[in-house]
Amino acid sequence: MSPLRRRHQDEGPAREPREELRGTALRLTVHLADNDPFHHHAAYTEIVHRAHRAGLAGASVLRGIEGFGRTSRMIHTTRLLDVADDLPVLVVIVDTPERIRAFLPQLREVSPHSLATLDTVELVPPADTERPADTERSV
Description:
The protein has helices at about 45-55, 95-110; strands at about 25-35, 35-40, 40, 60-65, 65, 75, 90-95, 115-120. By secondary structure, the protein is of the alpha+beta class.
């Protein structure tokens, strides 16, 4: 399997799936560099694994193609090989305000100095998942 598509084995199982979020939620966005370490792996990986074990509704890692941070002396970009390291990464987690706030101590254990933001978000309800059996999806 491609390294981009491998599944990580977690140290422990996640909590049971919860019912779908509705209404408003809290979005936690953590700003990191792709090479920020936590022990022997990337900090963003540890954050996602801990969010999964905590039973949070979902987490995504988004890799930036260009950016700089508070301590950067230059703009890091994928366009130049010599500054293609230290690229920006965002970890985005959405759940109820209570569950996100309860997760913040774990975030700070993994990444004590990263920029983290909290935003109240309105959730868009999913479309009706019931579809007639004879309707084919066009590709």
